[in-house]
Amino acid sequence: MKKRNIALLGSTGSIGTQALEVVWAFPDLLEVSVLTAAKNVDLLIAQALAFHPQFVVLMDETQGDKLKEGLLGTGIAVLLGEDALVEVVQHEPIDIVLNAIVGSAGLRPTVKAISCGKDIALANKETLVVAGEVIMPLVEKHGVKMLPVDSEHSAIFQCLAGEEQNPIEKIYLTASGGPFRGKDIAFLETVTKEQALKHPNWSMGAKITIDSASLMNKGLEVIEAKWLFDLDVEQIDVIVHPQSIIHSIVQFQDGSMKAQLGLPDMKLPIQHALTYPLRQPNTFERFNFLDYPTLTFERANHDVFRNLELAYEALRQGGDRPCVLNAANEIAVDAFLRDEISFLGMSKLIEATMCQLSSIKQPSLDDLIAVDQQTRVVARSLIRGIG
Ligand code: NAD
Ligand code: MG
């Protein structure tokens, strides 16, 4: 394999730091030329000193001097702000952009990278939730690869290898069920953010951890899967699988099913995307069947976990609805983490916001960027009335 040059967006996050572990494990195959962060300047400096990228980008311009000082004499170029984050992906040596930013902030860099002919390794599911209808034709037009990093979608992608002639009948996205699996509404009324932040199987950033507890993460993944694999909403099912060993399943038209299994470790899908189509030997921990004698499955409860139903509903309605759902959810999660609304208040806020905004049937990219911003304003204005 020819050495691949990576722009790693969101390098200081959970996916970002694990991606750097993967890069570290394959010094002859992978190198990074771009590292970016929102605020964590100390970690960004440490990463830059270890990996020697060409560019670092920091969103928080007030810490620009500290970053420049930390990298003085290294020859690493320091860029600041959102426009720099978008522009930096176009540089010539970059082969693949690993987007590990959280939230719809990841959308514009993804669009730019595709337009510049870069392959995409996508952790930032919000990109496809907000604008899948615009992104996928762009991927086609520029002939780039869209490689999923989300573990469920990586699983489906891996199951589809060699099946180009065989239509999918259905996919099953597996869900751990999160920390509140099996609980009822009365229980959810009282849960705290500390409880919601404790995920049983995965260690992740705060936003996706809350999304996993509310099942919004699975809802966003249903929408992500629709665009990645060109499916109708009826072809996408969610099945709760608490052990998180089966990462997802494809069912073909003869009824045969293929699943992808492994320990819940994001380094595996990250490596798969970065070294695709090759599987490079590594020393990451192996699965042992005898540690998991029982793999179990349950129905996902759409009544208790209303966010999952809201996501299906947004997907059925189409147009700008998934974009509104996503932006309202970003505000709802933020408000929950600030103790401004309750756990169940998140679904109420999302639903109330979706009701307030009239829908656009065939939005352009610019429409979606505007709707994203507008939704945030509306959702913030509704927080006080939700509680
Ligand atoms: P995180 O919060 O740990 O990290 C987010 C990264 O994005 C950080 O580097 C942060 O500095 C940067 N960032 C945050 N806001 C930004 C902004 N407005 N502009 C630019 N950069 C910004 O999040 P994470 O858990 O690593 O998740 C990243 C993405 O990957 C999310 O879309 C998430 O849904 C997806 N994902 C994560 C996991 C996981 O295991 N963590 C698994 C599957 C998918
Ligand atoms: Mg996932």
Structural class: alpha/beta
Query: Major sheet, described briefly?
Result: 7 strands, parallel
Radius of gyration over C-alpha positions, nearest whole angstrom: 20 Å
Per the CATH scheme, the topology name of the largest domain is Rossmann fold
Which small compounds were modeled alongside the protein?
A: nicotinamide-adenine-dinucleotide, magnesium ion
Tertiary shape = globular
The fraction of residues assigned to DSSP E strands is: 15-25%
The helix count comes to: 16
In CATH, what is the class of the largest domain?
Answer: Alpha Beta
CATH 2nd-level architecture of the largest domain: 3-Layer(aba) Sandwich
* Measured distance between first and last alpha carbons: 54 Å
Average pLDDT, all residues: 97
List the domain count as a whole number: 3
Instruction: State the share of residues found in helices, binned by percent.
Output: 40-55%
Strand order of the largest sheet: 4-3-2-1-5-6-7
How many E-type strands?
12
The SSE order reads: EHEHEHEHEHEHEHEHHHHEEEHEHHHH
Q: Find the CATH superfamily of the largest domain.
A: NAD(P)-binding Rossmann-like Domain
Family: Belongs to the DXR family.
Binding site for 1-deoxy-D-xylulose 5-phosphate: 125, 151-152, 176, 199, 212, 217-218, 221
Function: Catalyzes the NADPH-dependent rearrangement and reduction of 1-deoxy-D-xylulose-5-phosphate (DXP) to 2-C-methyl-D-erythritol 4-phosphate (MEP).
GO molecular function: 1-deoxy-D-xylulose-5-phosphate reductoisomerase activity; isomerase activity; manganese ion binding; NADPH binding
